[in-house]
Every structure is written in C-alpha cells, then in structure tokens.
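User: tokens in, sequence out, please.
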C-alpha cells in the first residue's frame, strides 16, 4: 500500500472473490453462477437499451421496482434496487450498525459481513455454527444487536425455516434483522411476507443466481417503507445512478420471463440431487443443501488436495483454507454435462 493510504484502513482484509482464471477453459463450478444464460427477453431488452447509453438511467428504477414489487406481493416503496446485493448489505451495515448497535453473524457465513464490519469499525460477534454446521438460533434471540443471517447459509447450503427466523426477528424489536436470501430460490423459504408484520426486518436478494445475471450486478432489498427510506438516503448520498441502463433493462426482461427462471431453478435442483447422490456413492459426506451448490468432504482425500487435483484436470471448485472448512469443497451446481465432468474427474482422483 502507498504511504498515503489512511491508517484507519491499514488493517482491513478485503473480501476475496472466487477465482476467475483466464489461462484456459475450465468447467467452472466455483462461484455459484448459473449455467444458463439470461432469458432471451433480458438479452433483447439490454441490447435495445444500449442505443440510449448517452442518457443517465432512471435513479428511481421505477419500472423495475414496480415489477419486482408486483412479483413478490409488496409495495413499490418497500423495495430498493442496488448494484448487486452486496450493495444493500453495505448500506445495511452503514445504516443500522454503530458502537451502540453492534453486529452479529455466524463465524462461518458469507465473508463480506466481516469485511463490512471491519470497514466501518463496527463491533461484532460471531457465534460458532454447531458441529453439524447449523446455525445456533438461540445465540440470536433477544441479542440486542443487528443480526445478519444468510439463508440458506454459505458455504454450507443449510437453511433455517421461516418460523425459526421469525422468532429471531420478533425477539429483537429494537434491532434490525437482515436476512440475505441470495440462494433462496433453490429450495429455501423466503421471509419477504414477514416485512408486513415486522418493521425491523430487511430481506435481501439478487438476480445473480437464479436469474442468471451475475455479470449485470443487480440486487434488491425488501423492508418496511421506513427502513427503505433509510437505505435510499445512503444510496442517494453515494451513487444515485447505481443501477445502469443496460442492467435495468435486462432485469425487466428477466422478470418478464419468470417461467424460464423457475424452470432453470428446477433443473439446478435436479442436478444437485443427482450430484449429491453420485458423490455419496463415492464415499463423500454431503451436507443437505437448499442452495445452488453442495458442500462436501471425503474421508480419504484432503479438501485442498482435491481442489488442486480437480483444477489440474480443468474443473474449478471453491476451497476455503480455514480449520473447520478445509476438509470440504463448495461445488456449484451447473448443467448435467458439467456435473458429469466433475464426477468423472473425482472418480479418477479417488482411483489414483
């Protein structure tokens, strides 16, 4: 770092994104992207919008907010549109956390929570997951902190029920509870309907996973009108044109083809079940996943070694080199062809 870098950030450890290697063509199962392209309607809408790139996009995202609100059964002013769901999480840490409102999130979860907390110097606690990697919900009951829970969780894929989450929300009436539903469309239960019952609930989501738009960077949040106003204050104070014209158009096109999204989700869930079964037949322990990935370990192969050997064979998965996670690898669920390529490579490695 340079000698000009502010001391307040010198100890910051940034988030580490999944690998995006360019050296050769990989079977890419490491960043939980969709194996399917966005809807043809989304592609067509984005192409048409390119003709007006000389103009700023609508800062209110009016059409997109209204369409998203209609789909989820909420009002337009209960929705915020953002540049990837990371942005709404960023705003939530800024808006609802400080020295008197510390944060709380599991020790094993989406890595950006810790980065945001460190970035804003927010005190936080990280209750450990249980031995089976489930969230110990008792740690979040009446905790007096701003709660952040990914549901389904990452990198485990395990999900809490809406009833369990509602107990957490109800027990913390004076603190905001943020439920990150990036992967909910692959078998989880959404908490969005609860925003009309609890004014302290923020539910976030993304077009990156189930709607095949990771490259477009489009996320959203649902909450009471007052919470959304708080988040909009920060959005307009940082980047009011945060959703670009092409992304906004693509988002509208994708929402116009919701059946394609549901069909793709069903295919991913079928491929997930197929892959889990095949891995278990080869001796893997696979956590029950409600996301578009599997978290798996094999008693005879070190997780890091398996990751490296798969990479050498042109298959990328995600490995986390930390004590509890290092025996495991997170495997994105792709097309059946991609999963068969993974399984063939794994079988060869185990036979070595």
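Assistant: Sequence out:
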């Amino acid at each position: 770092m340079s000698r000009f870098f502010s001391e307040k950030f010198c100890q910051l450890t940034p988030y580490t994104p999944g690998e995006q290697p360019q050296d050769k063509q990989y079977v890419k199962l490491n960043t939980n992207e969709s194996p399917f392209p966005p809807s043809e309607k989304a592609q067509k809408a984005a192409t048409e919008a390119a003709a007006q790139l000389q103009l700023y996009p609508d800062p209110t995202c009016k059409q997109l907010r209204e369409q998203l609100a209609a789909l989820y059964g909420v009002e337009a002013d209960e929705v915020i549109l953002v540049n990837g769901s990371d942005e709404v999480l960023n705003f939530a840490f800024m808006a609802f956390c400080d020295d008197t409102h510390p944060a709380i999130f599991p020790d094993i979860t989406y890595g950006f929570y810790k980065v945001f907390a460190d970035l804003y110097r927010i005190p936080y606690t990280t209750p450990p997951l249980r031995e089976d990697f489930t969230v110990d919900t008792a740690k979040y009951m009446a905790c007096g902190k701003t709660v952040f829970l990914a549901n389904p969780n990452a990198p485990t894929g395990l999900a809490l029920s809406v009833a369990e989450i509602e107990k957490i929300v109800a027990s913390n009436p004076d603190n905001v509870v943020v439920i990150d539903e990036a992967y909910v469309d692959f078998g989880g239960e959404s908490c969005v309907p609860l925003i009309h019952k609890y004014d302290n609930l923020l539910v976030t989501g993304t077009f990156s996973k189930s709607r095949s738009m990771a490259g477009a960077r489009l996320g959203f949040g649902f909450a009471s009108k007052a919470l959304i106003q708080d988040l909009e204050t920060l959005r307009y104070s940082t980047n009011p044109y945060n959703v670009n014209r092409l992304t906004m158009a693509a988002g509208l096109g994708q929402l116009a083809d919701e059946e394609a999204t549901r069909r793709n989700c069903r295919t991913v869930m079928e491929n997930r079940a197929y892959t889990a079964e095949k891995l278990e037949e080869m001796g893997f322990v696979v956590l029950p996943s409600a996301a578009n990935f599997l978290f798996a370990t094999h008693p005879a192969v070190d997780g890091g070694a398996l990751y490296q050997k798969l990479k050498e064979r042109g298959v990328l998965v995600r490995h986390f080199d930390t004590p509890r996670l290092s025996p495991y690898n997170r495997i994105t669920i792709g097309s059946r062809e991609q999963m068969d390529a993974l399984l063939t490579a794994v079988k060869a490695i185990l036979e070595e």
